[in-house]
UniProtKB/TrEMBL annotation:
Naturally occurring in which organism (per UniProt): Fumia xinanensis
Designated name of the protein: ABC transporter substrate-binding protein
Keywords for the protein's UniProt record, in alphabetical order: Amino-acid transport, Signal, Transport
Regions that span the bilayer: none
GO biological process per UniProt: amino acid transport
Sequence segments annotated as region (Disordered): 27-47
Length: 394
């Protein structure tokens, strides 16, 4: 996940401490108990109450597709859980705010969510807003779980967790895959120097690829908003690179691969999870044929839980879900599992339970460590005949 992914939802502590339901994607939640009474401190709750879940992400602006996906993926999970009786008898109510992928707007949105009495935060969606909220959620003492904020600082406090992989881990994973699985020796990079997600992934890729004996023959950058990449591509073309790593968002990917085609370049592409959605930006998918990028989810994965989610999402929204929707869906079920494990809606109990749960989600089987990071296997997608094919990043 990163402004790439780095995508945000928000949770706060309600004075009445009402509870929400979130259940691990058809798997053992790591042990759950049922609360038997309600208290102002939220130590336990009776059935029939409500858990107020906050969320946020960009619903407008350049990154709106991320926030819309997060909102909709989370709502699918909430609807499922409520239809199945909720969590410990409680129904979930989702409150979602537009943060415009902007840190200041995110803080204002968080305050609005807290005014609505939220008890936990699923968010934010992108890294900048997620980081901006960490001081606030730490001070308020509530769980903050970002579905897609991938910058390291997104989990800087012990109440902060994430569903996606970090930027550095993505860079390391793709460098290993490039060097060991694909056997590339000379790599070129084009990254967004103004974006922490992109630069963090690029830096990690360089270090790991060189550690594996590879050589970085071109390391080119650009700034957000740039649309002309001929200078960078000319350098790459003459560098002797046998692969081009693009740790950037799909909008910029579309510009670069289109211009590379016009220059007559034929080079394999690798990327991070920011590539998700690239096929929808291209008139001719053949320009990215064979490209491989890291992802936690693909809608054509044949796993039963994935196909059930895809069907529900398409029926409700008339659209195909992406990884951001899947991350948010998993995030809701992770919170459900933590509430059940805690046997309480008391904020610290939910936070403490995060390192004791195991959830089988759309994006993989996962546990969480005290640093807030998920433990799960990485997947990559290869674009074959204009479609995504999923495989483990071994």
């Amino acid at each position: 996940m990163n402004q790439f992914l780095k995508k945000a939802l928000s949770f706060g502590l309600a004075s009445a401490m009402i509870a929400t339901a979130l259940s691990s994607c058809g798997s053992d939640n790591g042990g759950s108990s049922t609360p038997d009474s309600s208290s102002q401190g939220g130590s336990s709750v009776a059935s029939g109450e409500t858990f107020k879940l906050g969320g946020m992400g960009p619903l407008t602006g350049a990154n709106a597709s991320y926030g819309i996906s997060v909102n909709q993926g989370a709502q699918i999970a909430v609807d499922e859980i409520n239809a199945a009786g909720g969590v410990n008898g409680m129904q979930i109510e989702l409150f979602f705010q537009d943060d415009e992928s902007d840190a200041e707007t995110a803080m204002s949105a968080y305050n609005k969510l807290m005014d609505n009495g939220i008890q936990a935060l699923l968010g934010a969606t992108t890294s900048g807003p997620t980081i901006a909220l960490t001081d606030l959620t730490k001070e308020d003492g509530i769980l903050q779980l970002t579905p897609s904020g991938s910058a390291m600082e997104c989990t800087q406090y012990d109440n902060c967790f994430r569903i996606c992989f970090t930027d550095p881990l993505q860079g390391v994973t793709m460098a290993n895959y490039a060097a060991e699985t694909l056997g590339y020796k000379n790599a070129a990079i084009i990254y967004d120097v103004s974006n922490d997600y992109s630069s963090g992934m690029a830096d990690a890729f360089v270090k790991e690829f060189e550690a594996k004996g590879g050589k970085i023959v071109a390391n080119e950058s650009f700034t957000a908003g740039d649309m002309d990449f001929n200078t960078q591509l000319t350098t790459v073309k003459s560098s002797g690179a046998d692969v081009l790593f693009l740790p950037i968002y799909y909008q910029d990917v579309a510009f670069i691969v289109g211009q590379a085609q016009k220059m007559g370049m034929e080079i394999p592409y690798l990327g991070g999870d920011g590539w998700d959605g690239v096929l929808g930006q291209l008139e001719d998918a053949s320009v990215v044929e064979g490209a491989i990028f890291l992802t936690p989810f693909a809608a054509n994965d044949t796993a039963e839980n994935v196909q059930n989610f895809v069907k529900a999402y398409e029926e409700k929204y008339n659209a195909t879900p992406d990884q951001f929707a899947a991350d948010a869906y998993d995030g809701v079920y992770v919170i459900k599992a933590a509430i059940e494990k805690a046997g309480s809606t008391e904020p610290q109990a939910i936070i403490d339970a995060m390192t004791e749960i195991s959830v089988s989600g759309l994006t993989g089987d996962m546990t969480f460590d005290a640093t807030g990071e998920p433990n799960k296997a990485a997947k990559v997608v290869e674009i074959v005949n204009g479609a995504y094919e999923v495989k483990l990043a071994e």
